[in-house]
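Undecaprenyl-phosphate alpha-N-acetylglucosaminyl 1-phosphate transferase
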Amino acid sequence: MGEDYAIPGQEYALVFAAATLVTFLITGGVRAVATAIGAFTPIRDRDVHVRPTPRMGGVAVYLGVAAGVLMALQLPRLSRAFESSSEIKGVLVAGAVIVLIGVLDDRFDLDAVTKLAGQILSAGILVLFGVQWVQMWVPADNPEGGTTVSFDSVQGAAITVLLTLVLANAMNFIDGLDGLLTGVAMIAAIGLFVFSVHQLVVSKDDTSASQPPLIAAALVGACLGFLPHNFSPARIFMGDSGSMFIGLTMAAATTSAGGKLDTSTFGGRSTVALLAPLIVVLAVVFIPVLDFLLAVVRRTREGRHPFSADKRHLHHRMLAIGHTQRQAVLIFYLWAALLSASAVSLAFVTDAQPVAWLTAAGVLVALTLTLWPWARARRLRRSRAGVG
């Protein structure tokens, strides 16, 4: 493969373009089918939309990702990603299963146990196709500053299934505003793409190391193609078919990039750089998992079922303090970009201090924008109270 590795940028661009174009063009047809079969999101008390909107958008996203993968099969360098492993095929097969479960739920509202069984089945298919954690680098008190922990097949499979379940349900939790899940998933996938391309360049392995960026590139394109249909005011929703498929795809790409990180290739890189895959995972799931945990704790303390619905998710609170739907979604995009960029940048630097300062500045800006309507309303109330 040569001393210097050249990134196949044009080929990744073709994968991205194919996924974007196919998703954008086919979403209208999916919307028509969803309307014809009655796969609508009903108007519930906790919802923010005001008219029945068709679901099943995940079908279009899946077909877009599949188109990107099929495009890669026709390209000389990216086709090598299919030679050493069947992981990408596993993403398509498992994705088809979880999208089918999601479509049934979008139409018939399946119970939680049935959906969980479908998620476990899909995650198990990923494992059968070789998508599982093999080793993980952890910090330790030794001259090398860390050690590599290896997993057997059962442990690796369990971690993969658990990560898939967490991401599939976390992505579902964040899907509450028009374009929110689509944009956050796209930003997170961009972060994974950048990191996994960096890993590819360092390892110079255009077989197994080229699988994560290929999956990520196809997902970025599919999300971008779907976003014009889904941004406020949305004409079609992701539905469970979309949120669960995106969660599964993100889990597969993250596992492939982080779970199989070759520590010997990275040699004496800093501890922070070697931990970057784990940081990327935390950045990807931070917003939906935080929302998920807060919701479970809140409902449990109130004596309700932890998975019962309410109108106090993070995105509901954003609307309550005065943001419009579009403002709330754009602010969530900012937080997602800040987290992903901060995590991925650690893989490119040996000194984490500049990244920490830039992240702190970004957090300050994001907090200011997030709380501005609340602060303004509070100042107005105080002003009126003073006049009164």
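thats it. The CA atoms of residues 39 and 107 lie 4 Å apart. The chain has one domain: 9-387. bye
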